[in-house]
Write a structure and sequence with these properties.
The protein has about 500 residues and is an all-alpha fold. Helices cover about 85% and strands about 0% of the residues.
C-alpha cells in the first residue's frame, strides 16, 4: 500500500472509530452526571484532573517513542528499532514506579486542606485518588506499545481497543444506577481498571506481531540511547506538562474560588472540546508517521509540506463541527444534559474557540518533533502556555467572572500559535510566506462561508433540533468552499484522484 493510500485508509478507520466513540462518550457523560450528581461529578473530575496532569505522560512519551521508531523505519534500521523499543519500555517501567511514589506523597498535601472538597466526601475522594494513581501507572507502561502501533501505522487495532474502552466506560456508567455501594468510589475503581485492560491488549498484540517487540530481540541496556530518549522525552514532557497543566490547573483555580460544583461546568467544556478535537487529531495521527519518516529519509521539504497540510485540514475538520456548536451551544447542552450547570455554555464556547486556534499549527507541532530539536521550542511555547494559570488567578482575584479565565485561555493560545511558526522557521527552515499562502490564506474564504451559513441558520429557523440542520448545512457549504478556494493544486489533484478511484470501484462493483 502506498504512503498516500495508507494515510487515507488509516484516516477512514479512525473516523469510523470516532462515529462510534464520540456518540457513546457523550451519552456516557450524561449518564454519569445524572447518576453521580453535580457535586460528585465535579469531585471526580477534579481528582481525575490532578492525576491527568501526569497522565499526559502517555501522549508525550508515546510521541517520543513513536518519533524514534518512525525515524529509524525511514532509515530502514531494524536493529535500532529493537533497541529503541526495549530501552523505551525499561525507561517507562522505572518512570511509572517513580510517578506512583510521587503521587502518593503529593496526595498527603492535596487532601490536607488544599483542594476545596466537601468534608463529608473527603475520604471517598482520597480513595478515588489512589485508584487514579494505578490508572496512571498502566498508562505510562503502555506507551512503548502504543508508540510501536502508531509507528507501524496500525490504526485499525488502535481503533478496536479505543472502541472497547468506550464500551466499558458506558457499561460502568450504566452500572452506577444499580450499585448499592458508594457511587463515586465504584466509578473511580472501575474507571481505573480500564487502563490495565488496554495495556494487556496492546502488549500481547505488539509482542506477537512486531519483530522489535519480540522477547528474543532484547539487546540489553544502551546507556547512550537511554540518555537520548530521556532528554528528548524530558523536553517533550515539559511541553505537555505546561499544556495539560494549564488545562487542569485552571480546574484547580476555579475550584479554589467557586467550589466543586463549577468543576462540573469546566469538565463538560473539556469533554465537548476533547471529543470534537478527535476530528483533527485523528487525521494528525494518520499523517504523523509519514512526517517522521520523511525526516528520517532526509526529505525535509516533504516533511514541512505534510505538516502544513495537516495544519490546514485539522483546522477545517474541527471548524466544520465546532463553529456550529459554538452558535448552537445553549440548545445542544439542553438536549444533551438533563441539567446544565452554570457557566457551561460560556465555558464550552471559549474552549472550542481556543481549540480552533490551536489547529492553525497542529501539524507544525509534529514537524518540530520530527526534527528532534525541541529544547528551546518546548521551553518557550510551554512557558507561555503555563502563564494562563497566574493570569487566571489574577483575573479572579480582581473580581472578574469565572468565564474570564477562558478568555485568557484563548489569548494565550493565539500567542502560542505565533511562537510555533517562529520556531519552525528557525529550526526547520519553514517559509513563513509559504505557510501564510498555503494555510492561513486558504482558510479565510471557507471560514467566512461557514460563519455566514451558521448565522443564517440560527436567524431563519427556530426549533429544538435546529442544531442538526445547522451542522449539516455548514458541512455541505463549507466543504464546497474548501474544494473551491481552500486547496492548493497538489492537494486538489490528490483528492480528485481519491474520488476517481472511489467512483471506479463503485462502477466496477
Amino acid at each position: 500500500m502506498s504512503a498516500a493510500n495508507r494515510v487515507i485508509f488509516n484516516t477512514g478507520i479512525l473516523y469510523g472509530r470516532i462515529i462510534v466513540t464520540v456518540g457513546i462518550s457523550l451519552f456516557t457523560t450524561r449518564i454519569v452526571l445524572d447518576a453521580l450528581g453535580a457535586v460528585d461529578y465535579g469531585i471526580f473530575n477534579l481528582i481525575a484532573g490532578v492525576i491527568v496532569m501526569l497522565a499526559f505522560l502517555k501522549n508525550a512519551m508515546a510521541t517520543s517513542t513513536q518519533r524514534y521508531l518512525s525515524f529509524y523505519q525511514g532509515k530502514k534500521d531494524e536493529k535500532m528499532q529493537s533497541k529503541v523499543f526495549w530501552n523505551s519500555l525499561l525507561f517507562h517501567l522505572i518512570l511509572g514506579i517513580f510517578i506512583m511514589g510521587v503521587l502518593e506523597v503529593a496526595g498527603l498535601f492535596l487532601f490536607d486542606g488544599f483542594l476545596n472538597i466537601p468534608s463529608d466526601r473527603l475520604d471517598e475522594a482520597y480513595l478515588v485518588y489512589h485508584f487514579m494513581g494505578v490508572n496512571v501507572f498502566f498508562l505510562i507502561i503502555s506507551v512503548p506499545f502504543n508508540g510501536s502501533l502508531v509507528a507501524h501505522e496500525n490504526m485499525l487495532f488502535v481503533a478496536i481497543v479505543n472502541i472497547i474502552e468506550v464500551l466499558l466506560k458506558l457499561a460502568i456508567a450504566l452500572s452506577l444506577y444499580s450499585t448499592s455501594k458508594d457511587k463515586l468510589i465504584s466509578y473511580g475503581i472501575l474507571m481505573a481498571g480500564i487502563s490495565s485492560i488496554s495495556f494487556v491488549f496492546y502488549a500481547i498484540y505488539c509482542i506477537r506481531t512486531y519483530s522489535e517487540c519480540k522477547l528474543n530481540h532484547w539487546r540489553g541496556v544502551d546507556k547512550y540511547l537511554m540518555r537520548e530518549l530521556g532528554a528528548y522525552a524530558g523536553w517533550n514532557l515539559f511541553g505537555s506538562v505546561c499544556s495539560l497543566g494549564r488545562t487542569q490547573g485552571l480546574a484547580v483555580i476555579l475550584n479554589l474560588f467557586f467550589g466543586a460544583i463549577i468543576n462540573s461546568a469546566y469538565a463538560i467544556a473539556n469533554q465537548v472540546g476533547g471529543q470534537l478535537m478527535f476530528l483533527s487529531t485523528t487525521m494528525l495521527k494518520s499523517i504523523n508517521p509519514q512526517i517522521m519518516k520523511s525526516e528520517g529519509n532526509g526529505d525535509r521539504k516533504r516533511m514541512l509540506r505534510l505538516s502544513m497540510i495537516a495544519s490546514k485540514f485539522g483546522f477545517f475538520l474541527l471548524s466544520i463541527i465546532a463553529v456550529p456548536f459554538i452558535f448552537e451551544m445553549d440548545n445542544i447542552l439542553h438536549v444533551w444534559l438533563k441539567e446544565v450547570p452554570d457557566f457551561s455554555v460560556a465555558f464550552c464556547r471559549m474552549v472550542l474557540v481556543a481549540a480552533i486556534i490551536n489547529q492553525l499549527t497542529i501539524g507544525l507541532q509534529s514537524a518540530a518533533q520530527a526534527t528532534g530539536r525541541i529544547k528551546a521550542y518546548q521551553a518557550t511555547v510551554g512557558g507561555v502556555l503555563i502563564l494562563n494559570l497566574p493570569l487566571a488567578y489574577i483575573l479572579l482575584k480582581w473580581g472578574f467572572e469565572a468565564y474570564s479565565v477562558l478568555v485568557g485561555y484563548v489569548f494565550i493560545e493565539l500567542t502560542a500559535v505565533c511562537l510555533r511558526v517562529y520556531f519552525l522557521n528557525k529550526i526547520a527552515g519553514l517559509s513563513v510566506k509559504e505557510y501564510l499562502d498555503r494555510v492561513i490564506n486558504k482558510e479565510l474564504l471557507p471560514f467566512v462561508v461557514l460563519l455566514i451559513t451558521c448565522m443564517l441558520s440560527i436567524t431563519m429557523m427556530a426549533f429544538e433540533f435546529r442544531f442538526l440542520v445547522t451542522i449539516i448545512l455548514s458541512a455541505i457549504s463549507t466543504s464546497a468552499a474548501i474544494f473551491k478556494w481552500g486547496l492548493c493544486d497538489d492537494e486538489r489533484q490528490i483528492l480528485s484522484g481519491v474520488f476517481q478511484k472511489i467512483r471506479l470501484k463503485i462502477s466496477y462493483s
